[in-house]
Predict the 3D structure of the following.
Amino acid sequence: MHFTVEAQTIAKRYLTEGSIAIDATCGNGFDTLFLAGQVGRPGIVYGVDIQERAIETSQKRLHEADLLRQCRLVVGSHSNLTTIVEPAHAGRISVVMFNLGYLPLGDKSIVTKPEITITALEQAVELVRPGGLVSILAYPGHPGGLEEVNCIAEWAGGCQLGEKCFHVEKFQDPNNANSPILWTLTKAMFS
């Protein structure tokens, strides 16, 4: 299973032309590009990454595909989603995608951190609309990755309970201890 493709395949079910979406970790812009293509010109995609290089790469990729117009790219931490997203869009986001770890072909010492990621996920579940999706792709195989995976697993388990009320699914290769792990969280319609 190619987990980035699987994440996009699942996300596609939640997106229509005019949707609002967030790529919380732009990286090289592939998820941002995917989201922009799905929401079309009337939609909006927020693209966030802490590294300026990632935003520049994403901007170039979107420009080449003539999809930059519907995107709002921000150099910043995904732990600031609630300040990045316009207040009028809170509770109206169809999809929030996270692809954690480090920037491919970038500085591997700059990685997502568990405590910052959990803060970002808490904000994502507040921003997403009822019936919307939060997808989280994490990698246990790099330094710090297993700690982040464990924190996300514990956090995601709590999302099925109490006020959050999400349907949570987890995908991974059971034959590979370092397999990426994909979680999908679908917000209950009555939230």
Q: What stands out?
A: The mean pLDDT is 89. The first helix runs from residue 3 to 12. Helices lie at 3-12, 30-39, 52-64, 81-84, 114-127, 145-158. The longest strand covers residues 128-138.
